[in-house]
């Protein structure tokens, strides 16, 4: 076996060789294009992760200890500047990558429009988040106060990011909304597509394993428990084999509905207002308003264990 110093030199010669790099580059379709001067950098996931942290501080600055109103203003100014800078850069990169037919200045200007529109929307989003936190407090006997819900509940992190990502998604911002929701999916176990429409006073108890699909519509005062899936059935395809885009393929959950743990609701069905869906239910049809949906109690058999032989 070669000595360690010779092995290092051997590996460096082998894997830094131009012939391996040239061969590897052929696997990148864009490497053969002439894109000199164009920005081909995708948004960075670490920037999206930082944005999630800044959003929490922006909407709920009490985490930092605000003191007087002047100090509160300086904290909000700082967090908003940091957040909007990262968001602008991420949107610009996504636009440049997805729309290479346009100029860099086009991406810059459109990114500015998207960020400005979101900043105008932030007060309304914060009021929605306050209602979500209050719904969490009212809906969970274990919560001692609203601040506990804001600080400790994974649902608040997921909903905070989703409400911003949904706004950007509706404006047609590429990549960034999906990246935002994937960051929070990894951190909380709650998977909400940014296209999902969610009304006021929304709460997810525990949260782990919840899946909410792109065309889901959720009304006001809806409560979900862990493991709930609002998903789609197999999707029809065009003759060319591509999936239909824009088709409503996920459930509509009307106002004042509670869905308990591990219930699965699939397809473009409607759960009527005021209904309660019990745990482990499997639903593929419309449910009338004010219904209680339960599954049959499975038969449980209890018998003594066989004693080990001596």
Task: Give the CATH architecture of the largest domain.
Answer: Orthogonal Bundle
Question: Biggest sheet: strands, sense, closure?
Answer: 5 strands, parallel
Uncertain runs are none
Rg on CA atoms, Å: 25 Å
What is the CATH third-level topology name of the largest domain?
serine acetyltransferase, domain 1
What would CATH call the class of the largest domain?
A: Mainly Alpha
Give the number of helices: 8
Molecular structure report:
The protein has 2 domains: 42-189, Orthogonal Bundle (serine acetyltransferase, domain 1), CATH 1.10.3130.10; 209-236 and 246-296, Hexapeptide repeat proteins (UDP N-Acetylglucosamine Acyltransferase, domain 1), CATH 2.160.10.10. It has 8 helices and 14 strands. It has helices at residues 4-15, 18-25, 45-59, 69-98, 104-139, 146-152, 154-170, 176-188; strands spanning 191-192, 197-198, 203-204, 211-212, 217-218, 223-224, 229-231, 252-253, 258-259, 264-266, 270-271, 276-277, 282-283, 292-293. Helix 3 (45-59) runs antiparallel to helix 4 (69-98), helix 5 packs antiparallel against helix 7 and helix 7 packs antiparallel against helix 8 (176-188). The chain is globular. The mean pLDDT is 88.
């Amino acid at each position: 076996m070669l000595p360690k110093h010779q092995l290092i030199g051997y590996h460096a010669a082998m894997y830094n060789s131009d012939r391996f790099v040239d061969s590897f580059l052929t696997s990148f379709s864009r490497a053969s294009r002439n894109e000199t001067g164009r920005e081909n950098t995708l948004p960075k996931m670490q920037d999206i992760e930082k944005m999630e942290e800044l959003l929490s501080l922006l909407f709920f600055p009490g985490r930092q200890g605000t003191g007087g109103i002047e100090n509160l203003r300086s904290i909000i100014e700082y967090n908003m500047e940091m957040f909007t800078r990262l968001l602008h850069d991420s949107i610009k990169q996504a636009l440049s990558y997805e729309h290479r037919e346009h100029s860099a200045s086009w991406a810059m200007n459109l990114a500015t429009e998207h960020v400005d529109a979101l900043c105008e929307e932030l007060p309304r989003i914060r009021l929605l988040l306050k209602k979500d936190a209050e719904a969490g407090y009212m809906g969970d006997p274990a919560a001692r106060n609203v601040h506990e819900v804001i600080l400790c509940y994974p649902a608040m992190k997921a909903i905070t990011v989703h409400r911003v990502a949904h706004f950007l998604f509706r404006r047609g911002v590429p990549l960034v909304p999906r990246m935002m929701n994937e960051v929070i999916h990894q951190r909380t176990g709650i998977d909400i597509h940014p296209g999902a429409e969610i009304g006021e006073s929304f709460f997810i108890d525990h949260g782990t394993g919840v899946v909410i699909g792109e065309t889901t519509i959720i009304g006001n005062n809806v409560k979900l428990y862990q493991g709930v899936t609002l998903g789609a059935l197999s999707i029809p395809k065009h003759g060319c084999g591509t999936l239909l885009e824009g088709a409503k393929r996920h459930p509509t959950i009307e106002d004042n509905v509670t869905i308990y743990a591990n219930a699965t609701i699939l397809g473009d069905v409607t759960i009527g207002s005021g209904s309660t869906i019990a745990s482990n239910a499997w639903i593929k049809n419309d449910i009338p308003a004010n219904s209680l949906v339960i599954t049959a109690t499975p038969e449980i058999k209890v018998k003594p264990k066989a004693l080990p032989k001596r």
